[in-house]
Amino acid sequence: MKLHGRSHDRHSLARLAGDLSAAGGVRSVVLDDGTERGIRTLEFRTGAGLSFDVLVDRAMDLGGAEFEGRGFGWRSATGFRHPALHEYRDDDGLSMMRSFSGLLLTAGLDHTLFGAEVDASQYRYPPRRTASHGLHGRVANLPARLTGYGEQWQDDGRCVLWAEGEVRQAAIFGEHLRLTRRIEADLGGTEIRLTDRVRNAGFDPTPHMYLYHVNIGWPFLDEGTRYEIPVSRTLWQTDSVAEQGVSNVDMPAPLPGFIEQVYEHELEPDANGLVRPRLVNERLGVYFELEFDTTQFPSFFQWLHLREGAYAVGFEPSTHRVQGEAAAREDGSMTFLAPDEVRLYTTTFRVGKLR
Question: Cα–Cα distances in Å, from 37 out to 51, 81, 143, 245?
Fold first, then answer.
């Protein structure tokens, strides 16, 4: 691996420093002020300019992220609010907006997209004939059980920084879904690897929807930043696209009163079913890239939120189309996991220099 312009292995690093943290690593801290107080956080540093935070008490989502001192993980005014402050049905189901910040917000595990009231008869509990959902489901505000983290040398000479935990979403006479998440980054590397395993740990067929809300903010996002997305066709877009006419390729500076523009695109995968949409900032000479498998995430949404004070853009791979759960149930595309059934999701977040 290369660190600070020189190649190093385990032995050479040990000669230079008595603790690997001189080069990089994973550190456990607890946030201790304001609405973030009490959130367990893992700080990753790869030693190659990439640093990012894993919010253990927020489903092990990714919070702040930087490359060579420049932020790319979106930081909103909400901060990383402690989940104990979260009320799922607050704001008519839009309560997610009070804790919406960071590089990754996970949506699911049984519902994504806008709120819906759907049949819950599979749980066989007469007082609960329906289930009521808020925007993007519950999982992002559930603490994980941290099962391990640290640095591990591999046989091929790599040192892998890693963390793993389990998030449990469960109710009596309701769903029992478990998310096992593993996050990896190589010492000397510039990518984050995410492996998610969602299992129906209950004994009833259970709805499953999954979406990653990947959010890029300033300074990676700035006037002139460009989207590069392998779009074969656009399937849907919000009315605000026609009303505002703002490009979804070349980004403007923050706009007063901007209404979010959302697109559902059909993407063109490579021979392995992978796509790599990216955001390119020529002025800084950097890019952000998201790699995912279209067999795992067959739908993709592009999110533009270019308003003053909340300036962000998003990449949203999804298991279901934008019309949401009620429509998916009606057209037969809704996913129901059988007892002990598992779905696997493997995704890579990558940053780098253009030259």
Answer: 21, 8, 14, 41
